[in-house]
Specification:
There is one protein chain. The chain is about 30% helix and about 25% strand. The protein contains 11 helices and 15 strands. The strands form 2 sheets. The protein has an 8-stranded mixed sheet. GO terms for molecular function: methyltransferase activity.
């Protein structure tokens, strides 16, 4: 029987709570949020499930040693004490990533990686007169070293390539949104597939694809070709396929519309190709439409969520552009909830609508706000009067 062990899922700043909620719903135990990460407990099958199913995780780490260290020599000795043959063959390959946040270490993360690599190589050389090679691109085992103040955690990286690389995106535009962030936005909006969904500036379709996978309960990384844990010595292929099949059985079809617009024909072509890659063409429609000339053509409640161009991507009048966003939403999209992410805080002032929620997030290195607008048919006051009369 598989025993539970501690794991850590890393994420983007601002999505820790969303990831913790995902883990809870997936069945994780002992969930604890930290900055850009969430720790939890589960067994080997859950490690496989977390990699396949989590939408807002970047990688899943399995700690194998935690200890106090005060300098590079302590680090070297700590790594030397691990029985590395349990995880890595002498004829295999490995790679190391490091994150350092400690005043005790003046060296950068690259040097810490090199020091860790030397410790592992020397361990094998002393024991077997031979050492495994480093392969930065396709290692058999990927190791993660995290130093926080006096504490060092050495982990096996079960994901390999970042989990935002879902396997569906072959065509992109300038500065495409990260898939993990896109999924996080959809989850933060509260969209679950029980109403219509529109991305009116859809670019290469990432937000649409993540929304469709959420609406239809499709595992986030079902299109991935490989996870690092498949190279591990204790990999259980039968268990992996049991976990995968159990997740696939939970897929259900949402009957509401999921639509994307873009004024650039090239963006529409790229979005359609990515949607085909994700096997979601029956769920998503993409149209060559300028949002500013559009109207709401679906009945009922609708979530509108988009990532308008900003910063270096925007070479038009910012004030006019965001004012037109507000006017179009206000006049053409009644009975909708609109969400916008932007790093241009000043631009939001020109939307001309009252925000009902503002969530701080990071998009790469940019500080952003994810803001919510509630769009009623008529004014808020009229809506309240109608509701009061019904009571």
């Amino acid at each position: 029987m598989n025993q539970d062990f501690k794991m850590t899922a890393t994420t983007l700043k601002g999505l820790e709570g969303v990831l913790a909620d995902e883990l809870l719903k997936l069945g994780a135990k002992d969930i604890k949020e930290s900055i850009r990460s969430v720790s939890f407990r589960g067994d080997k099958g859950f490690l496989y499930k977390a990699n396949i199913a989590l939408r807002t995780a970047i990688r899943i780490l399995k700690p194998i040693k935690t200890c106090k260290i005060y300098d590079e020599e302590d680090l070297y000795e700590a790594i030397q004490k691990i029985k590395w043959e349990k995880y890595l063959d002498v004829n295999g390959t490995f790679a190391i990533g490091a994150v350092v946040n400690s005043k005790n270490f003046t060296s950068n993360s690259h040097y810490i990686s090199l020091k860790s690599k030397d410790a592992i190589a020397d361990y094998f050389r002393h024991k077997y007169s031979k050492r495994p090679n480093v392969d930065l691109k396709y290692p058999d085992v990927k190791i993660h070293v995290h130093i926080q103040k006096d504490w060092c955690t050495i982990s096996l990286d079960s994901s390999g390539e970042s989990l935002h690389k879902r396997g569906y995106r072959s065509a992109t535009n300038i500065a495409p949104i990260n898939e993990v962030l896109a999924a996080g936005l959809v989850l933060l909006s509260g969209y679950t597939g029980d109403e219509n969904f529109i991305d009116p500036m859809c670019g290469s379709g990432t937000i649409l694809i993540e929304a469709a996978m959420i609406a239809n309960h499709i595992p986030a990384n079902i299109n991935r070709k490989h996870f690092a844990f498949e190279n591990w010595k204790d990999y259980d292929e039968d268990l992996y396929f049991i976990i995968q099949d159990s997740l696939l059985k939970k897929i259900k079809s949402s009957h509401f519309k999921i639509m994307g617009f873009d004024k650039a024909p090239s963006a529409v072509r790229k979005a359609k190709q990515n949607i085909i890659n994700a096997n979601l063409e029956e769920f998503i429609g993409v149209h060559h439409v300028n949002f500013f000339n559009s109207t709401k053509e679906v009945f009922g409640n609708t979530t509108i969520l988009f990532n308008p161009p900003y910063g270096e991507r925007l070479n038009i009048d910012v004030e006019e552009f965001y004012r037109k966003i507000g006017d179009t939403l206000k006049h053409n999209y009644p009975n909708s909830t609109a969400w916008i992410i932007t790093s241009d805080m000043g631009a939001l002032k020109h939307v001309g609508l009252r925000t009902s929620k503002r969530i701080p997030l990071k998009n790469a290195d940019l500080d952003c706000r994810f803001v919510k607008y509630e769009l009623y048919e008529g004014s808020r006051k009229i809506k309240k009067v109608i509701n009061d009369q019904k009571e």
